[in-house]
Structures
1.
Amino acid sequence: MKMEIPNIESSRLVLRAFKQSDADDVHALLADGSIADTTFLIPKSYTKEMAEDWISTHQSEFEKRTGVTFAIVLKEASKLVGAISLIRIEEDHQAELGYWIGKEFWGKGICTEAAKLILEYGFRDIGVLRIYARHMTRNPASGKVLQNIGMKREGCLRKHLKKWGSLEDIEMYGALFEEWKDDNH
Ligand SMILES: CC(C)(COP(=O)(O)OP(=O)(O)OC[C@H]1O[C@@H](n2cnc3c(N)ncnc32)[C@H](O)[C@@H]1OP(=O)(O)O)[C@@H](O)C(=O)NCCC(=O)NCCS
């Protein structure tokens, strides 16, 4: 039986599986390059074919239990505004959180709301014991999202990543199930 990526809802958002028909929207959201600038995996010149290739990996990663990626959709407007994932899932252990939101939708609390949903999904449904995230030090908005969802800063990896020829300091954050469950029962 095919395993389905679930829908997860809050009052304002639905997290759902990407469809190939989302590729135009993904391309439009990533076209201006400001998301590529502070993410680890998104290339600067992003084409519709890249969006299609990326979307085509989601189902098999989910079936292999190595990752789960959700489209972030504004429920009322049925508008795709971003993506949120748990990647590098290690069974009974941990996973890495990653996300992006289209620039015109920044600063409305959307990522914080989506990240709360996926944290709960990771701990309650996937069953990992630790969820971690990393962001460039020069991207404090991402750090604020992680603080908003209760993650703890674990340190800074200095000049850890080479991005477009520059060495970047990386902030590490983590949440432990044993701590999260006390605040979310
Ligand atoms: C990081 C990102 C996902 C945040 O999405 P968002 O929906 O705007 O996030 P939210 O609105 O939930 O929260 C952003 C928080 O950062 C704060 N913030 C924004 N810019 C900031 C800055 N320069 N310095 C400090 N805090 C900042 C906001 O005030 C908000 O804090 P609040 O919750 O106390 O009001 C979005 O900016 C983005 O997609 N950036 C490009 C891709 C990226 O960097 N992804 C993360 C890779 S690690």
Note: The longest strand covers residues 79-90.
2.
Amino acid sequence: MAKPRGGAMRRALAVLLVFVMLSSVVSPTMAANTAEMKPIMATERTELHKNINIIKVDPVLENATPYWIIIAAGIIEKGRAATFKYIDSSTNLTKEEKIELKKFVKELWRKYRVRSIKDGNVTLITLNSKAGLNLTQEEKAMLEKVAQAVNEYFSTKYGGDVGILWNVDTHQSIIYISCIKWGIYRDYCNITMDHADDPDYWPHLPSDHYYNPDTGVGSAPYYCWYYAYGARSYYRNGDMYNAFQGLGWASHFLTDVGNPLHTGREADQALHKWVHTAYEDYVSNNWESGYNFKSVIEDNRYYYAINDPWDATENLASYSHYYFDTLYLTIYNNPDTWQSSTLVRSITEDSLLETAKYVLGLVKYVTG
Ligand SMILES: [Zn+2]
């Protein structure tokens, strides 16, 4: 699409024309929606998380091995039982291999003992010894087998499609609701919704849909900024199709990092990709029924003013990342019951609420 050229007069005319077009199409829709729409208000970021009990795993342990979750699980009976369950349920391991693996894991938990330190509502899981973690090649190979058993368990029990994101419908739903809340013409909201899932069909690296605030790895902030900035220019030039398409794409990358599992360690995610998928299916399955997570987005009336979509994406990632270890460990430690966990539900609701405020801000950034 060629950029409009010409003098200030021509630009002013273009803007005026857009304004006339907008007022003729937007007004009736706004009027129709007034009754159901409550005002949206700006609010300051507080970075206050929900007052729930959180688990943090010491970065020394997390950085030492992508299999840290198996070692951390050794701290409680539930985690140990879950690990044995994954091994026992595997159809790829022989009886002898299972016995050998369980013996290995038991020894591993003894060798690399972890302890917990409680500070307020945060429990830190850390290695008992200051010596750190130096896994032998053999230990790594054995841990890989355990990880495969975990993946096998979740893929068999929860199935679903392996994605690298929130599920497609979640992305679309969040941006559509946010767009409608600002009273934007429904046809434009439909354009942005239709394109909100596109990036998941692009030949992207998984890390393009991630951002890990601890390591700075992941390109989601860049992509959100790139498409939002472009969308805003299109909007100002009156190119509504490209503006709302771009808003849909930008919102995708912002929404992705609202999912705590999109802010974690990429290696672990590949390793336990089925845990990740099972969680996203859980959100999807409870979107309009069950826990009705969609209502968190619908009921929210606040937005964060966004000046820089890049920073905004990083800030949202930091917020949801706070929950990463807790979410991951809770799912791991409760192979059959995590879906009814109040902790998992609270984390999901709080992350979605924060996401809703940012996405509203993004819509305003582009169209404001
Ligand atoms: Zn994505």
Note: The first strand starts at residue 41 and ends at 42.
3.
Amino acid sequence: MEYKSQNVVCQNCKGNFIIEPEDFYFYEKIKVPPPTWCPECRQLRRYAWRNERTLYRRNCDLCGKNTVTIYSPNKPHKMYCQPCWWGDGWDPASYGRDFDFSRPFFDQFAELQLDVPRMALLSKNSVNSEYTNHSGDNKNVYLSFAAWSAEDVLYSTWVMKSRDCMDCSFVYDKGERLYEIIDSRTSYECQYGLFLKDCSSCYYCYDCRGCNHCFMSSNLRNKSYVFKNKQYTREEYLKKIKEYELSSFSAREKLQKEFQDLIEKGSIHRYIISERNVNSVGSLIFDCKNVTQSFEVNNGEDSKYIYGALDLKDCMDIYHVGWATTALDYECHGCTRIYDCKFCHLCYDDNGVSYSDSCQNSQNLFGCVSIKKGEYMIFNKKYSKTNYLALKEKIIEHMRKIGEYGGFFPPAISPVGYNETQGALYAPMTKEEVLAKGWKWEENILGTFGKETIFLSDIPDKIEDVPDSFLKEVFSCMECSKNYNITQNELLFLKKEKIPLPRKCPNCRYKRRFNLRPLRKLWHRSCMCGKSEHGHSAKCPNEFKTPYAPDRPEKVYCESCYNKEVY
Ligand SMILES: [Zn+2]
Ligand SMILES: [Zn+2]
Ligand SMILES: [Zn+2]
Ligand SMILES: [Zn+2]
Ligand SMILES: [Zn+2]
């Protein structure tokens, strides 16, 4: 069939969006109706299901042991600790039930979700990494999320194949001895940096590549001994650096302010960061071919509306999905190694699974919860292949008739509150707004206040003066006043790297890094360059799509002006 672009009104935000011919072909291929929500609202709906980092402790409903979980103790869902969930002590099929064609699908699915135990959180093949979620293959990783193949990593997010890192976000590959590093790869012994690649011993650097021993500098290529964007000899540089007491909190506070200024006023920002792509449009996308309208994608092909993914092909509308041989998936969240899956949440190693939640190593499931190694099941009940296919088609027909088929699960039946999810960060809403939509809000987010045993003024300025007895103290965050502790590995790391004890809680540190990153949204803007020596008139006429909103303070340049300014 021949398709034309269609202008559609979003049923959620009432704004207009366009469905392109290539979108229609994809929907036809996977037999789903075109979406009724715009791409942003579709992502919002998926955000409402991702509790990535709000952790609780709660007793396992099978063995009674206290465990770390993403479900607050007051949630009505049953929760099993990971060993129990994966173990043979229970049978998800015992919760199987018939589908009732007199009622909507989602009502019945929500009831099933309340009955079948959920796994506490998702952390696979890991050693001594209890406080990790959406993670796997880790060793000694603490309070980190979306961490894979990492070792000795603390308080970080999206850290892959890296070791000895603390307070980092989006370190893609081979990071080592990093602190407060964002959107970087293959770097060693760096502190406070954004967009670093192949760098070592760089401090407070923005957008540097192949550099070593650089300090408070930006837009450098293959440089050494650059201090505040000025070249020095090795001896001069080392003398300058020596003047800073890097282990002192007050010295670091000044440096951090200076760095913030350098990023906002002193650096040139390329309009978009995306590299080694063919025919692709998106922010922070790398090694992609025909990937459009996407954010934070590595190694993707023929995909669109992708948010945070790697190694995927022929997918649309997915969020935190990927990790090898992921293809033909649509409207999924938090899924790994899946093929031909639609409308799935927290499903790993699955094939041909739709409208299912927390199902692992399975094939051909529809409307299932917490199935392990299952096949031909609907609402957790096993069928013959023929009966499965017939009943599945009948349910899809039923869902289509009442307008339920074709979108991700509604946020109203998400097992977590919106304020516990990544939605609270990427698309903040007030409690009133959330409740008005019929979505959930969690009142009892974990955290204590006012229980501190030590005050800010009692913390020594320099890390070398912090005694081991501080491991027993309770601190109060200087930003949100929430209580927090420090761990032994953390203190060892800080002392080794000469970093003062953080005065803010891990969550406020995470939010600071979040605010420095480009958003998952594109704005149409024009180049801010006014340098006539580039060969253009007073102002460069180039226009582009950029993740920097028009009210952001950064100097955003087009590709050609940017290339003239990096050196
Ligand atoms: Zn919308
Ligand atoms: Zn248990
Ligand atoms: Zn805080
Ligand atoms: Zn320009
Ligand atoms: Zn220019």
Note: The pocket of zinc ion (ligand 1) is lined by residues 10, 12-13, 15, 37-38, 40-41 (CB under 6 Å).
